[in-house]
Amino acid sequence: MANVDKSEINLTVSKGEIVGITGRNGSGKTTFARYLAGEIRPETMGMVHINGLDTYSQLDREKVQRMSAVAYQSPREAMVFDNISRDIIFGSENHGLDAEKTLKRGSFYLKKYNLRSRKNASYYSVSASEQQRAMLCSMLIMHPELLILDEPFSMHGSPDVTGYVKSLIAAARKKEQTVIIFSKNPDVLKLTDVTYELSGGFLREVDISSFDYLPKQEGVKTIYGDKTPKGVAVERYIDGGRGKNDIGISLHNVSFGYNENLIIDRVNTRFEAGSAYRITGGQGSGKTTFLMLAAGLIRPYEGEVFRSENTRIGYVYEYPDDGFVESTVLDDVMFGPMKGGFGKSEARGMAEAVLGFVGLDKSLWTRRLSTLSFGERKLVGVAGAICLNPDFLLIDNPYAGLDRDYCKHMSDIFEGLTREGKCIITAENRA
Predict the structure, then answer these.
(1) Going from the N-terminus, what domains does the chain have, and what CATH number goes with each?
(2) How far apart are the first and last CA of the chain?
(3) What is the DSSP letter of 362?
(4) Residue 430 CA: distances (Å) to CA of 1, 54, 134, 160
(5) Count of alpha carbons within 13 Å of 69, Cβ hemisphere only?
(6) N or C: which terminus of the chain carries fewer CB neighbours within 10 A?
(7) Span 171-189, pLDDT tens digits
(8) Contact yes or no for 88/141 (Cβ under 8 A)
(9) Per-residue pLDDT tens for 98-151?
(10) Radius of gyration, CA atoms only, the chain
């Protein structure tokens, strides 16, 4: 495996088996998934066979692609059409299934994965959890013999995950499909037939109850602020104790919606310096919309958002790649200071200091962003925002797809920033 010395992976999966593969962030799970799919080849030696077919052979490639399907952690990698329904049925059409069966299957999966109300929506107008389910539907509609799922529900809250995974696995057993699920979520892994840990370039069978790095699922604490009609709530979990005179952002009777569908309705909330807040809610409830309203990235239909004069805001997207402007780690984190008027040498020093503060391994600083794990890219996104020296740091779903060590580290970063008088606002799947 790339970037893992002396790695050697051996795995045999029987037809109809449900296999879980876990591991820490940066352990190579996504790379391994791409090996299995035949998208990339091992750097030195080794083979991957599916039903006796060589995934790297030009002669076998088309057969392999027809019998297997891959769902990525970042759904946009597999998106072909910007329309949800159109994108879901594309694979089935491409495999030559007749129009009537294709539409019937599409309707079935839209209903099964709670996407019927989104069938005509743009991919970019729905939540990340809905994007993940849409991508999964686009794989399932082809009825593949092998499903390779890379963190398929990482953007979902815990209550939703178990139901979806149970349904997926039950259907797979009925069809004798083979499923390989890459995940750090214990609610997912406990439903598999066997779980392997990927560590140091090797696989070993494990009992997930022995791990201490799987993320704990926490309940919502005391509510602070307002609940919207769809169940979004604001919770203050670190009180900076600075009082109303230090309010930096406040929402007054704010309403917002998409295509006449009201999501945020007459919300009143304030965010104070030195405190930390969570915007919580279920899938598609409007958490990201709430966060973007507070950041000033979108304007409310009604009401007003007030910010203190000269307030600096840093924003980290749910998919950190959406905020990257350069191709390498250092260049991207340096970008903000350089645009702010700092020279290259000074900006580099600032970037290195912040990368050290967020705990990104120094060996990764010169790497291309595309070679980093999702968790590592999330840290780079946070570093880039911090390098702007914001008064308010807003982060969308900061813990999605992260193991417990990364979650704890991210939480420590937020706590440290509040001690410096910064305000942290996150949107999280906790309801």
Answers:
(1) 18-210 (3.40.50.300), 233-428 (3.40.50.300)
(2) 38
(3) G
(4) 35, 42, 21, 10
(5) 20
(6) C
(7) 999 999 999 999 988 888 9
(8) yes
(9) 889 999 999 999 999 999 988 988 888 888 889 999 999 999 999 999 999 998
(10) 22
